[in-house]
Design goal:
This protein is 87% helix and 0% strand. The longest helix is centred in the C-terminal third of the chain and has 46 residues.
Length: 75
C-alpha cells in the first residue's frame, strides 16, 4: 500500500510540475483540464484513504479503551 501511495504521489508531483513549468505549452484547454483533473482526483483519493485509515484507528482505539475498562472492573 505504501508503494502504491508513493507512486501516486510521484504521479501527482509530476502533474504539478507540468503546471508549474513556465515553458510547458498546452495544445488546448482540455489538455490543461486533464492535468488539473488528475491532480484533484489524486487529492480526493488520498483524502478517502486517510479518512478510512482514521476510521480504522478510531475502532482500534475504542476496542483498546473497552479492554482497559474491562480489566479495571476485573481487578
Amino acid at each position: 500500500m505504501a508503494l502504491d501511495t508513493d507512486k501516486r504521489l510521484d504521479s501527482l508531483e509530476d502533474s504539478y510540475r507540468v503546471l508549474e513549468d513556465g515553458t510547458t505549452k498546452f495544445h488546448s484547454y482540455s489538455d490543461l483540464d486533464k492535468v488539473v483533473t488528475s491532480i484533484f482526483d489524486e487529492i480526493r483519493a488520498m483524502r478517502r484513504r486517510t479518512e478510512a485509515t482514521l476510521r480504522v484507528l478510531k475502532t482500534i482505539e475504542d476496542r483498546v479503551n473497552l479492554y482497559i475498562e474491562q480489566q479495571k472492573r476485573i481487578k
